[in-house]
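User: Please predict the structure of the protein below. I'd like the answer in structure-token form so I can feed it into my own downstream comparison script.

Assistant: Understood. Taking the following sequence of 141 residues as input:
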Amino acid sequence: MNQRELLKNKMNKVKKEIDTKIVKSVNKNIRSSVRKLKPILKSIVGKKVDVAIRNLSFSEKRISKDIKKTISSAVANAENNYQYDIDKLIVKEAYCGKQVIMKRFRARAKGRASPIMKPYSNLTIVLTEQIKQTENHGSKS
């Protein structure tokens, strides 16, 4: 391939990225470990926003309240900044990462100490507008 074709391919990729409608919301310093966040995030990926918020409101996990806040913030961003229809929004991605770990100690017998780790996490929610897809139910003959 010559340089012109490479540049053309690159421009097409950039166009495709611009065409996709994504909205992002980041919540930093959530007082929970990544290990506890991941199962909840996996359960909401691919669902409509209202279904995800409903599932989180009935979840018994303490951290689901913070996740629900972050999704609501992303919905508000989509509505106010990009004028998207909130009924068509779905959760495209939901991921978390490690933040700082506060280290404390607990006094034990005979002058010893055992560590207490208090981890923090980052939470990122990416929403996108659902695109209508036509379904083909086989060939008509």
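That's the full token string. DSSP finds four helices and three strands in the chain.
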